Amino acid sequence: MQLARPRPGYAAVSRWFLAAALAGLLVADLHVTTLHPWADLARLLDGLARPDFPSVEGWSVVYTVAFAVLGVGLGAGSGLLLAIPFARSRTIRLACAGLRAVHELFWALLLMQVFGLSATTGMLAIALPYAGICAKVYAEIIEEADLAAIRVLPVGTGTVSAFLYARLPEVAGRMRDYTLYRLECGLRSSLVLGFIGLPTMGFYLESAFRQGRYAEAGALLLVFYALIGTRRLWIRGWTVPLLLAAAPLALPPAIGNAAISASLARFLGHDIVPTPLRGAALAEPETWARLWSWLRPILTDQILPGTIQTLILAQIALAATALGALVLFPLTAKRFAGPLGRPLGRVLLVVVRSTPEYMLAYVCLQLLGPSMLPAILALALHNAGIVAYLMGRHADAIPYRADAPRGLNLYAYETVPRLYGQFLAYLLYRWELILRESAIFGILGVTTLGFYVDAAISELRLDVAVVLIAATALVTVAVDALSRGLRRSLRIDTLPTRLSGPAPVAG
Q1: CA–CA dist 249, 279 (Å, integer)
Q2: How high is the pLDDT of residue 464?
Q3: pLDDT tens per residue across span 320-352
Q4: Given this model, what pLDDT does residue 155 score?
Q5: Whole-angstrom Cα distance, residue 313 to residue 21?
Q6: CA 465, CA 461: separation in Å to the nearest integer?
Q7: In degrees, to the nearest 5, what angle opens at C-alpha 303 toward C-alphas 445 and 130?
Q8: Where do the TM regions start and end (predicted)?
Q9: 7-50+281-507 adopts what CATH topology?
Q10: 53-255 CATH, one of 3.30.70.100, 3.40.190.10, 1.10.3720.10, 3.40.190.170
Q11: Residue 89: CB partners within 8 Å, gap ≥ 6?
Q12: What pLDDT does residue 477 have?
């Protein structure tokens, strides 16, 4: 009789991840290279305290919203179509995994080679990964729905008809809630696209930071926070059709007049084809020998070191996220923060989680200089804000005993042990997302995979860039698969992991 292998427990998995993060700290570059980081921080805070609102370019706010609305609309619509056959088609699942594994900035850098700095680039850069994300989430929502209506359909009812009449009414509310949340994410993505030249708020924010105009930067940040904070007021069921109708009219004009068909043909037929295969005879062994000679230094000199640095950065950031969330979640729990502190704590965490990681990393880079430290701080702050916000909601749903202790004892012995499984579920779900962001931080100078992607695109070696982006996607998919495997092993794979997931149930 063969004994079953014991499953890892919460403590074992936590120790593994903490040990990996500590090992990463031994080799990570965490130096502060600026001469006066505190003085720079003081100037930034002064800019936030005395913002220069008249300097804010109004059209940048309009473009930020327009890109987000159209990009998310296109991505969510495509995701809904892909979600219907998602569970039955391995091809569609793999395609969606590939779409969502590539960061919006990577998509934008590639699309710019075809469409230039245009609205099409901005919309598709958001729509492509969001289509993969929405397809997965919508498919999960459909699978979790009640099947009672399906059972009473006539025999021979088609798949589309069955979905429209039996499934969609059941899942429409949850899909709507998730799509509206995804629109908030789209606003963050739209802002970040400004850092590569598209005329959203990020373009003016980067310019203001680079030139030391902190009052303008502070105004832009506050306007963006107001945009996110008031999302529930101006993004409603009845306003979405109006936004979708108005957004195309508010798009910026294209920069340049490239012939799109010719650019697309050149991009697909020449630019991204590996150099040794361009015009070569594929049946000749020498062609494949040249391809290996071309690919080998990319693997050894770029993909391997870039992957190692990406994993190190992601692992340290994940551990920092965990520690930050454990410290911060009491700020939003009524048993810890009280009636006065809880609203302030929620505002703080909403601001932190609403700030895109890339923008946080850019700000930290200006304050601390180029190293892994700004990226780790940015990832930890943003993701700890998200996890802490959600953990606070779960803490509020705990039915404490009438004689429950208070203070540290309530936290350490009553609350954290009861929430730890949910806590690990959130962290493992964020692991893939942290890895995606870690790769893209290479554009800011950290030697992750994005560093080599940015260099290849800058040198117009698009064939190399595509190989590097494909490697990034494979690493992300592998981490996602490992994360799902660990969640199943820990029996926490059915717990909610999305910010817009179902509200916690007391129990």
Answers
A1: 43
A2: 94
A3: 999 999 999 999 888 888 877 888 888 888 888
A4: 66
A5: 9
A6: 6
A7: 75
A8: 61-84, 105-128, 148-166, 187-205, 211-228, 240-260, 312-332, 433-452, 464-482
A9: MetI-like fold (1.10.3720)
A10: 1.10.3720.10
A11: none
A12: 92
What token pair was written down for 314? 């992601």
Q: Is 404 left (phi over 0), alpha (psi -120 to 50) or beta?
A: beta
What residue ranges do the domains of the chain occupy? 7-50+281-507, 53-255
The token duo for 58 is 């109004």
Q: Specify the residue for token string 């009438």.
A: 402
Token digits for 233? Answer: 């007021």
Structure-token match 């710019």, residue found: 112
Give the amino acid at 339: P
Give me the long-range contacts of 22-31 (CB less than 8 A, separation at least 24).
22/319, 24/311, 24/312, 24/313, 24/315, 24/316, 25/316, 27/312, 28/312, 28/313, 28/316, 28/372, 28/376, 29/371, 29/372, 29/373, 30/371, 30/372, 30/373, 30/376, 31/369, 31/371, 31/373
Read off the pLDDT of residues 96-134 as tens digits, 9 standing for 90 and up. Answer: 999 999 999 999 999 998 888 888 899 999 999 999 999
Residue in this structure with the two tokens 């430290």, named with its chain if needed = 373
The residue whose two tokens read 């117009």 is 460
pTM of the model: 0.88
Q: What is the pLDDT of residues 186-223, one digit of tens each?
A: 999 999 999 888 899 999 998 988 888 889 988 998 99
Q: 305: which 2 tokens?
A: 């070191």
Residue type, 405: P
7-50+281-507 and 53-255 share one CATH topology?
Answer: yes
Kindly state the DSSP code that residue 198 receives in the 8-state scheme.
-
Query: pLDDT tens, 409-461?
Result: 989 898 999 999 999 999 999 999 999 999 999 888 888 999 999 999 988 89
